[in-house]
Amino acid sequence: MSAQAPACQLLERQKDNYAALWAIGPPVDSWLIDQATGVVSGDFDALREWQAKGKQARTPFDLAAGEPFGKEIVLFWPKAHQLGIWWLKWLCEQLPEGTPIEIVGEHQGGIKRVPKMLDELGMPWDKRDNARRCSLFATRTVTLDSSSDSAWQTFETLGLILLSHPGVFGHGKVDEGTLLLLESLESSLPKKPLKVLDMGCGDGIISAWLAQRGHHVTAVDVSAFAVEACKRTLAANGLEGRVFSSDVFSALEGEQFDWIVSNPPFHKERDISYGPSQRLISAAPEHLNVGGRLILVANGFLPYPDHLQRAFQDFQTLADNRRFKVYGAIKSGR
Prior knowledge:
Layout: H1 6-12, E1 21-24, H2 30-35, E2 38-40, H3 44-52, E3 56-58, E4 72-76, H4 81-94, E5 100-106, H5 114-121, E6 125-131, E7 134-140, E8 153-157, E9 160-164, H6 176-186, E10 195-199, H7 205-212, E11 216-221, H8 224-236, E12 242-245, E13 257-262, E14 267-268, E15 271-272, H9 275-283, E16 288-299, H10 304-312, E17 316-320, E18 324-330
Parallel strand pairs: 1-2, 1-4, 2-3, 4-5, 10-11, 10-13, 11-12, 13-16
Antiparallel strand pairs: 5-7, 6-7, 8-9, 14-15, 16-18, 17-18
């Protein structure tokens, strides 16, 4: 089987043995999974693909500081450069000094900026190869002056303390659409505690806002960085809630809620992808109690009204600031 992802094709042509390879933050590619021993990733979709083939799969938060996991390391450079820097710092903390690391990525994903970043971190580097509009660099772990934990950002909004990590949606700032969503909820929230699902929780602003008002919150996200950020946000505000990984409703089989609230993603890396949002809307009625509500915010141009109409037969536009719209739909008893 040949590699499909361009960055993996560049690796494949190295003819290296890769007998004990650990892939860090990779795309899903069958050739890579077959070659490698294991993966460390913040993407639960990717982790599941590796686990399905009997490979070791961990999030960076599963590993204790300094816990060994491999000697042949390939870091796939992410679109978010601050996340790439975090991975480099984390690898330098996790692995013995002098451990070789290869870094691969697509030119349109910013891999060409990596030598400058390695220079700034004091990490030596060589360029190994360049093809398929990708580049491959070799470096080694060093002892760094600053820790990976310095990537966490803490900021305040709406009377809440938020903790955010590079790679989490809206890192370090409050999303305009989320603010519109919360503003529209303020007037319609009942006084009695609701069982609420925050789908795609990100840094946990929606979960914390709802928990602060006495509601029973379950928060899920497909990103390990978002799950960790949401947990830290709730803890920083002295609030409680269930937070765990789920690809849309995959980990919530048979569970129902009074409300499902979401600012769903529509990007997968650089591509527009409506898949998760469509699955959220179409399966929401199965996960709502009778009379329960789905409330979501989206860019005005996205085709969600059609999906809502199909899933619920009716919906309302609760708020519209021209850039974003907040939609609400109720599960009827029919």
